[in-house]
Write a structure and sequence with these properties.
Blueprint lengths: L1 H4 L8 H29 L5 H45 L1
Helix pairs in contact: 2-3
Length: about 90
């Protein structure tokens, strides 16, 4: 019954935090590529500033969206662990 004595923590496991961080970075990279390509397809001539802005805004928007998803997943993981802990304690009683 060592699990029942452990204090409940809202902090997700380190592997989950690393996975969430990597997912945010990958999402930001994908958003930057999409923003850059979108501007590149629509602009004719020298549009380096516009392409850079498209990449920057695309990366920021995608990374922010992915961070919301990552936070929700990490919170759900914590709640799931708590439900499993309660079920385990009920069956042991």
């Amino acid at each position: 019954m060592a699990d029942a004595e452990d204090p409940l923590s809202a902090l997700p496991p380190p592997k989950a935090r690393v996975a969430a961080f990597v997912a945010i970075l990958v999402g930001g990279l994908a958003g930057g590529l999409i923003g850059y390509t979108l501007v590149k397809l629509q602009c004719h001539g020298t549009c380096s500033a516009q392409r850079g802005m498209g990449a920057l805004f695309g990366a920021i928007i995608a990374a922010l969206g992915m961070s919301v998803v990552a936070v929700l997943v990490l919170r759900a993981l914590g709640e799931w662990k708590e439900v499993e802990r309660r079920e385990k304690n009920k069956s042991a009683s």
